[in-house]
Design brief:
30% of the residues lie in helices and 25% in strands. The strands form six sheets. A seven-stranded antiparallel β-sheet has the order 3-2-4-1-10-9-11. Strands 5-6-7-8-12-13 form a six-stranded antiparallel β-sheet. The longest helix has 14 residues.
């Protein structure tokens, strides 16, 4: 996942660009970049943020970012923005993308006598690939349509030109772009909270497949929206900062409703409920309301020296960092029956380690409640986790165990009314070592978000999707 931010102001934009981009730091851990344009001259700064925070790397660059308009990105993958000089003029582009046919598109570009210059260890930079596809068009609109027609997966992006910023949202709207306004100034962002403290207020939600030109004169639609949407349901469950709004639906309210629904229908007896920070907190507050038991902080996250940007690539080191960030409150836990709410279970290793840590405090019983259904399929569109294959998911390992060594009959494990589903959940419970384990249903997720099922991407839960 990555996060995008752009601004057009009537004064130098560097400060707004710096803070607005930084507010997307929860979405990426590897690279970050800023680009501004000033009378046709494009300024660019890119830094590695794997072992430090965005602010630390970019605070000394602000004075170099000249001009009244710019774009920024926090990326979990490639170095960006990419700057191009083409028949369309000079422009910079940054993306949120998952390109599943990247090898095919590389050959397409090479066949048109285009070249790649941003190789890293032999790997094509996806953002440069998008830039090349854009330049194949006669106009920016033509080039953006070329991207939509060729990319299998998902891609949303910002294009910085001398005339303004073009905001292009994924053709099925799997990721988001929202435009804020402050007088005659405009901001465009992946997440709405990023511009609130800068004085902007939401003006427009860019629609799936739509491209909008943002300039000092206002907004102009370059490409009309698609008639279909498959927005990622995990934006509300996990990715989004709690106060973010997607499609005018608040993430924290959705998490509260997910917890409330679980609490109302849960017959477990417990002293209180606690959220596993950060994304489990909203659900835990809803669970407390639905169940009628107190919410208490039995486990806390230590943030002063463990910023999210410090997240090693090595899985063993990632697990250690995840453990070090969470601190159990022994006096709160000892001898208690506690419900712990979390957003999801991916591999299961972190939860298993957390459970051991909690039992070491003397907690009596641990009941884990999960916001969403089990993750049975890997994400094809947003790079949801660091898992390289579906078989790294705990559900896949369990299904293989239950099916005699092979992953088969997967559809039966989507349905919470089947014996296969019940056996899967019970096996996961034993594997992570908790007293009870429950997941919300897909129907509950859809109702909590409030959009029709056909407008939500739920591929990771049930394997469904349309469009590539």
């Amino acid at each position: 996942m990555s996060g995008l931010f752009g601004v057009i102001t009537n004064k130098p934009c560097a400060t707004d660009l710096f803070y607005g981009t930084d507010y997307h730091s929860h979405l990426g851990t590897r690279r970050a970049g800023l680009s501004t344009i000033d009378n046709g001259v494009i300024h660019l700064n890119i830094h590695n943020i794997e072992n430090t925070q965005f602010k630390t790397k970019f605070v000394t660059d602000i004075h170099e970012m000249l001009g009244n308009q710019g774009i920024g990105v926090i990326s979990d993958s490639d170095a960006q923005p990419i700057v191009c000089n083409s028949h369309l003029g000079r422009f910079a582009v940054c993306t949120v993308s998952r390109i599943n046919n990247i090898d095919e598109l590389e050959q397409l570009c090479l066949s048109k006598n285009q070249q790649f210059t941003e190789l890293s260890m032999g790997r094509t930079n996806p953002t440069e690939l998008i830039a090349l596809l854009i330049t194949q068009g006669k106009t920016f609109a033509d080039g953006i349509n070329n991207v939509y027609q060729h990319v299998r997966g998902s891609v949303s992006f910002l294009i910085l030109t001398n005339d303004g910023i073009i905001a292009a949202r994924d053709r099925y709207g799997r990721t988001t772009l929202i435009i804020g306004r402050r007088g005659n100034d405009y901001a465009v962002a992946s997440e709405t909270h990023s511009y609130v403290n800068l004085g902007y207020r939401t003006e427009y939600f860019v629609k799936p497949g739509e491209a909008v030109m943002i300039s000092h004169t206002g907004l102009k639609s370059l490409i009309q929206p698609s008639d279909k949407m498959q927005i990622c349901s995990f934006l509300w469950i996990y990715y989004g900062y709690p106060c973010v709004e997607y499609e005018d639906i608040n993430a924290e309210e959705v998490r509260f409703r997910l917890g409330e629904a679980m609490g109302k229908n849960d017959d477990v007896e417990a002293d209180y409920v606690s959220g596993i920070p950060d994304s489990g907190v909203g659900m835990a507050l809803g669970y407390a309301a639905g169940k009628g038991i107190p919410y208490k902080r039995g486990i806390l996250k230590y943030t002063p020296t463990w910023a999210r940007s410090f997240m090693p690539i090595n899985q063993e080191a990632r697990s250690l960092v995840a453990k070090m960030k969470l601190i159990p409150s022994h006096k709160m836990l000892e001898g208690k029956d506690v419900v712990f709410c979390d957003d999801s279970i991916v591999r299961g290793t972190q939860l298993r380690d957390q459970v051991k840590m909690l039992y070491d405090t003397g907690v009596k019983h641990i009941h884990v409640r999960i916001s969403c259904p089990p993750l049975v399929h890997g994400c094809n569109y947003l790079n949801f986790s660091a898992s390289k294959t579906d078989n790294e998911l705990i559900t896949r390992r369990v299904i293989a165990e239950l099916e005699g060594g092979e992953v088969r009959n997967v559809e039966a494990y989507h349905d919470e009314t089947t014996k296969e589903y019940a056996n899967m959940v019970e096996t996961i419970r034993k594997t992570v070592g908790v007293d009870t384990l429950k997941f919300n249903s897909l129907k509950t997720v859809q109702e909590a978000i409030g959009l029709p099922k056909c407008q939500l991407c739920t591929h990771c839960f049930d394997g469904s999707s349309f469009g590539e």
